[in-house]
Design brief:
Layout (H helix, E strand, L loop, with lengths): L5 H18 L30 E7 L5 H14 L2 E7 L1
Parallel strand pairs: 1-2
Amino acid sequence: MRPLPTRLLAAVAVTAPLVVAGCSSDTSSPNAATTDATTTDATTTDATTTPAVTGAVTVSAAASLTEAFTRIKDDFTAAEQGVTVTINF
């Protein structure tokens, strides 16, 4: 069996930790999503209320996904009364 070149081993040694670090989730980072009871969204009445979803959403999908996306659209619009969903197949 032929030994691996040193450059290949070095590249793997440098790349592997970066890939693993990029795929992890650190909730202590300042960019991580957190819930803060002291801040509120303009559409909420208090800090514990989830803001209502409103507006229009346009989804582009492959024609082979028509059945699945139509079902998802129906479920989503039933749960979120203020949303209009348009799907482009």
